[in-house]
Here is the input.
Amino acid sequence: MSLQLLIDDALAQTPPGRAVWVALSGGLDSSLLLTLAADACRRHPRPLYALHVNHRLQVAANDFERHCQRLASRLGVPLYVERVAVERESGRGLEGAAREARYAAFARRVERGETLWLAQHRDDQAETFLLAALRGSGVRGLAGMLPHRVWRGRDLRRPLLGVARAELEEAARQLAVNWVEDPSNTDVTLDRNRLRHQVMPSFAARWPDASVSLARAAQLAGEAEALLGDLATLDLAALGGCPERLPLTPLTELSAPRQRLLIRHCCQVLELPMPPAARLATLLEQLASRRDAEVRIAWPGGEVRCWRGALHLLAPLPELPATWQAVWDGCWPLDTPLGRLSCMLQHDGGERLALRVSARRGGERLAQPQRGSRDLKRLLQEAGLPPWQRRRLLVVWHVGAVVAVIDGTGRAAVPCAPGWRLMSLLAPPGSG
Here is the structure.
């Protein structure tokens, strides 16, 4: 199949009328992909956009951006540029931090339901497989890059994943496509570049079809990963179907490999970063030996907590400073360290209110319908609120008395005091 037919086929697989984006770095692969996509979208009308992410990590970064602007202008494709700041001290390594910043830019620009095309090819896949194997990765890592997946509601596709770089280079020359070479691609101190320039050529000299075979191995690992995903889906359904809360008893009755598989599957469903193997091993050890303890295992972007017979998966939560407080009229959205509070608190009397909102400090009491004044700590325990959520509650005061306790989403953690009503500002009219 010719490259243009390959792109036409990929276009036919996108929802009619939905926009297609091309991630444009300015290199050979993405420059050619945008050129082919522009031709396909002229023949089969579809909104097409290019997205360039400027990582600002090297002097040549602005040259890449200018090339992308010239190419997109020549093709008549609107180009959007995202300039990002890469967190070098994130603990993920420079490449991992750059990837995180890049995908955050994708999420900002590409809408849910739209398609994003990425330009990786067969040689990239072979290198990814080898890197994963050298790192001791499991099936998920060995599967490399998937030709298609849904990511945060966006349709990510790699139309060129089965094509060799040599074929792309020949096609680019025939179509007179210009591209820029990233100077860092020749730095063999970087693992991928060492594979590309030193290891893969020696493989090809001995085994001419090495990249084909390695990419095929990644494809087979991808099929195995899909089957494991099916197994994890079945296990999750058997444990209640709630990925953020897994009951401990049936979880620990699974074999250790199935426990690891299920926890990683839940992280994927919840769009949390995968826990490193060492952290996951520590978690399983603690589950086996400290069933009644309040276990907490954290990693960049995610954490696990155990409480009341369940394992809770969640993103790290912002803290509420103990001294924080604010004045609120009960009507306007309130900005807090936990985010914007989009709710409304009203009193049956209808008068304009002067409220004070603060963090919990201990010893608060709250009047409850038909129960009188109750200790807030006991009310939260009765409500089954996990300890980490209790430390992030907003206490609302009126004339020296607590009248409501609100979580970071604007919901009442326990019933409000008699005569008070809490309503979401996002709720439809009449729903309060």
In short: The two ends are 59 Å apart (CA to CA).
